[in-house]
Amino acid sequence: MATTNEKIEPATTTSAADSPSAYDGNERGQPARSTGWMYKSRRVGGIKFPAYASPPIQLGVVAFVCFLCPGMFNAVSGLGGAGQLDATTANNANVAVYSTFSVIGFFAGTFANRMGIKLTLSFGGIGYFFYTASFLSYNHNRNAGFPIFAGALTGLCAGLLWCAQGAIMMSYPPEASKGRYISWFWMIFNLGAVIGSLIPLGQNIHSQNSGAVSDGTYAAFMVLNFLGAVLAWCLVDARNVQRADGSRVVLMKHPTWQSELLGLWETLRTDTWVVFLFPMFFASNWFYTYQFNGVNLAKFNVRTRALNSVLYWTSQIIGAYVFGYALDIDKVRRTTRAKAAWIALFVITMAIWGGGYAWQKQYTRAEVSADDFVPEDWTTSGYVGPMFLYMFYGFYDAAWQTCVYWFMGALTNNGRKLANFAGFYKGIQSAAAAIIYRIDALKAPYMNEFASCWALLAGSLVIALPLILMKVRDTIPLEEDLKFSDETIEEVMPTVGSTEAHNEKA
Question: Is the pTM of this model over 0.85?
């Protein structure tokens, strides 16, 4: 391992004018803080806002892009059947989404590292517009081919968007703040789904039918999707991001397609232990199909599905806040926090899904598919029980996703490597989603779907335990992060204090 006394030679030479970390000539050899409008904090009233090129602001931009694109996608999906009465077309479209997503997502780190975060994120947002448009069209012509095509396009775009998002969320913050950054993103992102779910709730609040949502609902989602893709262009390039202590994100200065394809392999070779998280990746989207179609769509009418969706995504905000901030408790060592997070996940897996088992025993797919079945309304006696169960499902999802991202972020701070980790995560996650949507399209019994969810979640936690016990460390030396980059310590080190400031809070 490199030491702080070793001299690390630059891979290339850049002029002081071109380099974002030019030197000020002081005797300590520390880089000067960047100047310019994007590096100046602003005070509005009594509130001081961070600089535009700071990690909090950049994460906020990414969060609102996801608020408007996948957040609205989640709102549509959360209605069950993408807002349609019959989930078959939506299931087939989602098979296309996640089949494409799984392939593109696994290699998306290569694209993000080569193309840059801004372009990758903006292109990634376009697909969601076409996905929503396809169901607006389907309301009128019943052409199932358009949703399937739009699903495939969305999968391609989503693979890129989520890789870029994951790289930003895990590599921009200092080590001590990663849990909070993940929670901030997840809260804003899911606020999009909450607001998106309020649209069909408002439009159907006086209707107790069990039909499809209205054209106006889809049109509103389309406008928001488009705005999200445009918003991505407000990001600054990753090389220009500067933390509060003056340190920068560890990247490749001169990435090529060859270097990034090789980097994908190098990530698996040097961080082989990450495969112990792969089952958690696989399980992380598996349960959506059961929850959206096997619970919400199966049992409730349109307005109640919309209400359930609002409560589900609101509970995600709460779950992200609780787990994100708990994972950053600085009075507890990171290794201890990692173990505590695993225990907490295991306990709520048994508790929440145990409650889900009691609920699922009450009905079958055949019963809710019968012609004389009447979907339940929020005025139906006994609704409060399944309402709280659905809220706990949302809380659980946020807890799971927050912990998985935090576990990955605890393995490295290198932006290039974390882009590949994010790609692995989304690729494997999406492969699982494609499989379970296809299973649901084939009308598998709901109890079978439920059992597969519970077993995958519990089993994947057991498999991940060795990595959590043996590979999560209290801190990652800056020199180790630089091994997977062509940058030097002088180019990314803090502008004040010593290299230990690399780990300070933003």
Answer: no
